[in-house]
Amino acid sequence: MQALRPETTAVAAADAAPLRLTLKVHNSMAIVERDWRHLEADPRNSL
């Protein structure tokens, strides 16, 4: 297996950074939505 040149690794890491951030935000939103639905489903929390 060919070793990656340092500049290639740096570029790949830079490309992956925004994707990781996007996934992190997406996961946080999914957790909030799940919790919100759980609260909505609870009759004690009826608005």
Can you offer a commentary on this structure?
Helix content is 77%, strand content 0%. The longest helix is centred in the middle third of the chain and has 36 residues, at 6-41. With 47 residues, the protein is mostly helical. The termini are far apart.
Beta strand %? under 5%
Mind summarizing the main beta sheet?
none
Radius of gyration from the alpha-carbon trace, in angstroms:
20 Å
State the distance separating the first and last CA atoms.
Answer: 61 Å
Q: How would you classify the helix and strand content by structural class?
A: mainly alpha
- How many separate helices? 1
Helix content: over 70%
How many strands appear in the DSSP assignment? Answer: 0
Order of helices and strands: H
* Average of the residue pLDDT scores: 78
Uncertain regions spanning at least 5 consecutive residues: none
Shape: rod-shaped
Short description:
This protein has one helix at residues 6-41. With 47 residues, it is mostly helical.
What order do the helices and strands come in, and which of them pair?
Blueprint: H1 6-41
